[in-house]
Amino acid sequence: MAVLPPNVSAETFESAVREFAAAVGEEWVFTSDADLELYRDPYSVMRGTELESLASAAVAPASVEEVQQIVRIANRYRTPLFPISTGKNYAYGGASANLSGSVIVDLKRMNRILRVDDERNFALVEPGVTYFDLYRYIQQRGLKVWIDPADVAWGGLVGNALDRGMGYTLPFFRDHANAACGVEVVLANGDVMRTGMGALPAADTWQDYKHGFGPDPSGLFPQGNFGIVTKMGFRLMPQPEHYRTGLIRVPRRGDLSETIKIVNYLSDSHMIGEVFYESPLRALLSDVGFRDAANRRGGGNEAELDRYAADSGLAAWQVELQFYGPRATCLANWEYAKERFAREISGSSFVEGESVDLPMTEEQLHNPNPWFRSGLWHREAGQGVPSMSAWSLVNTRSPQSPDGRTIAHAGFFPIIPRSGEGVFRAQQVFGDAFADLGLPPFNAALSTPLVWAMFAYQMSFPMPNDNAQVHRALLHLVRVAADNGFGDYRVPPFYQDHVTATYSFGSDALRRFHETLKDAADPNGILAPGRGGIWPSAYRQYRYDWEQDV
Ligand SMILES: Cc1cc2nc3c(=O)[nH]c(=O)nc-3n(C[C@H](O)[C@H](O)[C@H](O)COP(=O)(O)OP(=O)(O)OC[C@H]3O[C@@H](n4cnc5c(N)ncnc54)[C@H](O)[C@@H]3O)c2cc1C
User: Fold this and answer.
1) Which sign does the torsion angle of CA 440, 445, 446, 451 carry?
2) How far is the CA of 306 from the CAs of 228, 258, 294, 309, 310, in angstroms?
């Protein structure tokens, strides 16, 4: 099982490990199979094959100075490092590196909450701080700010933002890389750099204004490999006074375009939180004729689906809105939304949801209106409360081995235009792609986007119980998506080269720019080689050209 970093002899590696131990303490360097098992991705599509990425060792520093020492040792011995924060990036690679043989730098021990300010609304944390940790800290002190947890909240703010994770409250806060404000990072040469106002030694405005003066390199660290982040600031949402939900139904398939236009307006005007689109026509899926119509090649036929809607009395689409803020503005914004829909889409109808003063009681939090989606999956996250409830998706939505074990879990979320036309086009493209792959249909004509910072198209379907088939499907879907202008936003390390290859404008100008920077900032290529599709020259031969397998 034990692997070595590429081009490093066993003897040299032993010397490097001895130096890591001298830097952080023997008990914080891990090389046994049992310990390294924890750094494998249990859901890797390549698990157990020769292509699976395995760690050569793991090292767990407790301070910025120890991180600096690790980086200097890695440079001396040319051992590639792969930093993780809490290492819970399941669906996107877990704790595993792009390059097999990397040394995992596990930052869990650096878990101090350095500051939370509920007047200026920010937090400054170390990488090992989980969503649960920060939530508890805020609750214990009665601070009036919310966190915006990602699902499966045993992960943390830093690791999640560094993979451009998404949450479930208001638009500004649920784009976690966007809500980040100020980064401290150990660079490949061992320097400690602070971005934005953090570069001004006497400033107390690091988390107030992220850019400072001059170019702001903080955007290089999410999905990049230019440093090991040791502190990160986040803007926090002030605790809202009130919460209200409402549901809007529109009768015809074509109404989706106008619906999205209005909802984009509400969202971009900061009137609403996460939005849930759905088709009530799903209730008809037990009817074989309707199921065929929802899975028709070439996309759903508008007239046919409208007939089903008219005959059944069901709306073609519904959209659920969540309002946060003072009670009066929540109500006024909901009234405004209804008025816009009534004026612009004939036949719109409205359902009143909850109207609750915040924070919710335990009773309110755990007994939501059962047929509002915001009351189910994302109830806690939408209330700024960390939870593990989404973990059950790993078992219900992932391929299973014959003994019922989950065998793979890999996210694929292509970004599509925020318009009805974009949704209809994605339904057609992915519905047809599934048919081409021989995968089970997923009622494409009824599928709807996930509304994060962008529209991410979601496909929910039983996966084949065969990793090789999942692998071929992912390669194909990434390519088909790109050919239609839909780029994946986040992907496990194993597929990052494939996705990067699709962002090819100007003969791969973006990737070439990243790699020019990488070679200048990290000449030995020791920091997370391959992450974000960025390969330093020292390891460039490890880039995998998946196009040959598509
Ligand atoms: C069922 C299910 C639902 C999920 N739902 C969501 C969701 O709603 N939203 C969402 O965003 N994610 C979701 N995820 C993915 C995942 O659970 C979270 O994103 C989780 O927060 C990531 O783990 P982490 O915080 O431990 O990050 P880590 O694993 O610590 O970090 C992620 C990556 O960032 C880089 N990195 C981490 N720390 C550093 C550092 N200090 N310096 C430099 N680079 C670093 C590394 O490349 C690392 O692999 C879901 C996963 C599952 C299985």
Assistant:
1) positive
2) 54, 16, 12, 5, 6
Judged by average pLDDT, the poorest of 161-170, 363-372, 430-439, 491-500 is 363-372
* Cα angle 475-477-478, degrees, rounded to a multiple of 5: 65
State the DSSP H helix or E strand holding residue 353, giving kind and residue range, or none if neither: strand 349-357
**Across the beta sheet with 276-278, what order do the strands follow?**
349-357, 242-250, 317-325, 276-278, 449-451, 455-457, 414-416, 487-488
Predicted TM-score (pTM) of this structure = 0.96
The answer to whether 252 and 306 have CB atoms below 8 angstroms apart is yes
Q: Which of 152, 187, 398, 454 to mutate to test the pocket of ligand 1 (most atoms within 8 A of CB)?
A: 152
Residue-level pLDDT at 407: 61
Look at residue 397 and tell me whether its pLDDT is greater than 60. Answer: no
CA-based nearest residue to 320, from 277, 367, 264, 261: 277
Q: Are 129 and 158 in contact (CB under 8 A)?
A: yes
**Residue 195 tokens, joined:** 């971005």
Q: Give yes or no for residue 10 having a pLDDT over 80.
A: yes
Give the mutation target among 89, 187, 220, 225 for probing the ligand 1 site: most ligand atoms within 8 A of CB. 89
Position 357, amino acid: D
5 and 13 Cβ atoms separated by less than 8 Å: yes
For residue 456, the model assigns a pLDDT of 84
Q: Is 45 exposed, middle or buried (0-12, 13-18, 19+ CB in 10 A)?
A: buried
Q: Cα dist. 382→86, 240, 359 in Å?
A: 22, 12, 12
Cα distance between residue 429 and residue 448, in whole Å: 13
- Residue 337 tokens read as 């939304």
H/E element holding 68?
A: helix 64-77
Distance 91 CA to ligand 1 centre (A): 9
Residue 482 has pLDDT above 80, yes or no: yes
* Tokens 């088909």, located at residue: 480
Output the CA 82–ligand 1 centroid distance in Å: 14
pLDDT, tens only, 198-233:
999 999 999 999 999 999 999 999 999 999 999 999
Query: Beta-carbon neighbour count of residue 136 at 10 Å?
Result: 13
Is 168:183 a contact under the CB 8 Å cutoff?
no
Average pLDDT in the chain: 94
Cα 159 to middle of ligand 1, angstroms: 5
Centre of ligand 1 from the C-alpha of residue 126, in Å:
15
